[in-house]
Amino acid sequence: MQQTEDRTVHQLFEEHARLTPDAPALVCGEQRLSYRELDDRADRLAHHLRELGLRSGEFAAVALGRTPDLLTAVLAVLKTGAAYVPVEPTGPDRIIRHVLGEADPLVVITQEAYRVRLTDAAARTVLCLDSTELPEHHGPLPDPAGPADLACVFYTSGSTGLPKGALIEHRNLLHSYRGWREVYGLTAEDRFLQTATLEFDVFTADWIRALCSGGVLVLAQRNFTLDRTASPAELHELLLRERITVMETNAHTLRRLFAHLQPLGLELGGVRLLSVGAEKWYLDEQLRLQGYLGPGVRHVNVYGVAEAAVDSAWFDTATLAEEPDHPERLSLIGRPFPGTGIRLLDPAGRPVPPGTPGEICLSGPGVGRGYLKRPELTAERFVEDGRVYRTGDIGVLRPDGLLEFVGRAEGHDPAADASLATVEVLLRGHPEVRESAVAEVETGPRRTGLVAYVVAAEGARAEPWALRSYLAERLPDRLLPEAVVPLPALPRTRAGKLDIRALPLPAPRDHAAPGGSGAGSAKAARSGAKGGGFLAAEYGRLSPGTRWAAVTAAGALAAAVLTDGFWPGSTDLSRVPSPWDALFQLLYLVEFAGFGLGLAFLLLGGPLLARNGRPPGLTLATRLAVTWLLAAWWPQDNWYRTSRATDWPRQAALVYGFNVSLIGAAAVLIGFLAWHRSRPGER
């Protein structure tokens, strides 16, 4: 074979199709395709795509389910010289619309089950492979693609905002492939399991590792990250049945798999390499799994980002000279893949000394072009003329030369971010805690604080007060979380990462604890000693939901009483025949309830909006706008009903006083929802 430096990723696949045409290439359920069959299918589709106008410089979205057509489409797009944009067709509508709107692909390749969704999201040609008869074409197209051409657009997970499209060239992917081949020892005898979601970069990494090595790609029909009905037992059975030798998965899925294996004394069959990524995989977990499965299975903790072609650093336990103290506090990502450079920099862009936290910055042939249609963000993150990518992640170079992954940057000070990670690992080290997360969240109007989230170990209770006392003995006051929130499970993104935005807010500080204990109930009890304090004390004991219901009911009752006072006869239905009188009566009840809900929002809704992190002025305007939207139809309808149809001055005043103001209130609400504040290191 020619050197990979002079090729494209699909040309490496094509060489295997020429040299070993009958070798198995793709397995998906009962379907089996050889290299020749997969290549022929991709050639036929490539000819059809070229007839549709797809060529170098264009994008094609690939939005297919987990069938052999998925790999056929990816290879066909590359054969035309174009780049593919992976779109998970079962993903959220807002993500699909954003990706297709920004990438603006010439064609969307999908299947009939997703036609309506994707046609609605993109005003482009939609090609459904399961209902299209491809014309007979033989042989490949003239291939204009080279190593410097775009191969794909990786959209980031969107964990802190809308996803961004990272532009990745063939040479970026080939650089990563050479690193995988060297570090993992990939051969044509390997059988690779593919479980990653189409929209994420690991999907592309899996098929390149397999099909560029001449091995077999086993495409799992179930998504073991997203599908809650897919059990670890099914995954284990698939590993054994398909004789998998190489597998990459996320830490969350691996934890579930290990929890299934260990009690039953099961092993992984022929698996020789298990790589783990997506989020922190702690050293104690890695050592336990290594000890359980034995030396025949190599465990690699990988670190990487989409912007630098998937993987940039790796660690396995064989590189440890000796086991460090407190392995439960460490996530080691070891050393860079061959040809990749890693630097740790401070906020001013200066290198930090060993042992000091710094931002992980990547360099080398794996770094992509930048972001699609984001020149300002590209200039901010792809520095030194685009040769270095600032990840926004924090790492520490240990005395033994191994790189430790600390976590995501939350501010401008890597040392402070490292301190926050310390809280998380301390909690994780508690015997009653299985998983933990620490985040800075809005704990009140225009106020942020540190909150810890824990998942209890099997059979444990993980009492919040006890865990906070445990932390208080080991942490300075500035790092002590304001609250510890127990959860049945940490929320996950579609990629299996921790979903920080889905973490629940802690209970308000004055929220009464069960049994009447806590600051809130004590304050209410003190107020009860004064005149009229009994009602205040009782109100203070109500849950937030009950408070909303009480204020809404009181407001609705007030609206009903005031209607007859302000607009006599406006709700008189004595002349309305049945069943229309019942319909109008229902309308009046809804109006009264709307007024009451608006009153409740005005009185109680401020903290809910303030916690969204919008500017105070916008938050106040939105609070008033929502209140007006909820309550305005009550006086509006009554004034309309008590005015004459030909009273044009009053009709005009009502239109401008209510209808126009409602449009303005809706505009304020849209502005609140659309407002987005970029945070340091956002990705």
From TrEMBL:
* A single Gene Ontology CC term: cytoplasm
Q: Which GO terms describe its biological process?
A: amino acid activation for nonribosomal peptide biosynthetic process; secondary metabolite biosynthetic process
Top-rank taxon:
Bacteria
Q: Does the keyword Membrane apply?
A: yes
InterPro entries hit by this protein: AMP-bd_C, AMP-bd_C_sf, AMP-binding_CS, AMP-dep_synth/lig_dom, ANL_N_sf
Where do the TM regions start and end?
A: 587-610, 617-634, 654-675
Positions in coiled-coil regions? none
Renumbered to this chain, the signal peptide range is none
Task: Enumerate the GO terms in the molecular function aspect.
Answer: phosphopantetheine binding
Q: Where is the AMP-binding enzyme C-terminal domain?
A: 423-497
Which part of the chain is the AMP-dependent synthetase/ligase domain? 13-372
Q: Which UniProt keywords apply?
A: Membrane, Transmembrane, Transmembrane helix
Give the PANTHER family listed for this entry: FATTY ACID SYNTHASE, NONRIBOSOMAL PEPTIDE SYNTHETASE
The protein's name: Amino acid adenylation domain-containing protein
Species per Swiss-Prot/TrEMBL record: Kitasatospora sp. CMC57
